[in-house]
Every structure is written in structure tokens, then in C-alpha cells.
Amino acid sequence: MSEDDDARQRGHDIAQIRYHWGEVYEIGWEDGSFWFRRRDNGAMIQCATAAALRSEIRADYGAMPVART
């Protein structure tokens, strides 16, 4: 897969995660890692893959839901 293909896939993955979780988490990709930050307390987690990020978000939200506005 080319760098352009990787970038497109990352963009797609981030857009999908933001669609579902963007109201309660900031979500991004930087320096080779996907990350999310809780909007309520700023806690941040980094992951190597989008799938791992989704899993971590679900676990985080399940353990301590973020209030939706």
C-alpha cells in the first residue's frame, strides 16, 4: 500500500470514528499514532491502529461514560 493509500485509509478511519464518537471525544492521528482525548477531563490514549482506538474508546466509555451534549 502506498503512503497516499495509507493516508486515505487513516482519514476514512478517523472520519468514521468521529462520526460515532466525536461528540464526546477529540479524535486524531499524529506522529504515527491514533489518539483520543475525553472532552470532559482531557484524559488521552494513543493506539497503533484504528481498530485498537475503537476498542479503547468503547472500553473507556463503558467504564466511565462521557456526558453527551
Mean pLDDT: 94
The H-and-E topology, N to C, reads as HEEEH
Low-confidence stretches: none
Biggest sheet: strand arrangement: 1-2-3
What structural category characterises the helix and strand content?
alpha+beta
Domains counted in the coordinates: how many?
A: 1
Proportion of beta-strand residues: 15-25%
Question: Which percent bin holds the helix content?
Answer: 40-55%
Describe the structure.
The chain is an alpha+beta fold and about 70 residues long. It is about 50% helix and about 25% strand. It contains two helices and three strands. The chain has helices at about 5-20, 50-65; strands at about 25-30, 35-40, 45. The longest helix has 19 residues, at about 5-20. The N and C termini lie far apart (about 40 Å).
Short description:
It is built from 2 helices and 3 strands. It has helices at 3-21, 50-63; strands spanning 25-30, 33-38, 44-47. The longest helix has 19 residues, at 3-21.
Show the helix and strand layout:
Layout: H1 3-21, E1 25-30, E2 33-38, E3 44-47, H2 50-63
Antiparallel strand pairs: 1-2, 2-3
Structural descriptors:
69 residues; alpha+beta; 3 strands; 3-stranded antiparallel sheet; 23% strand
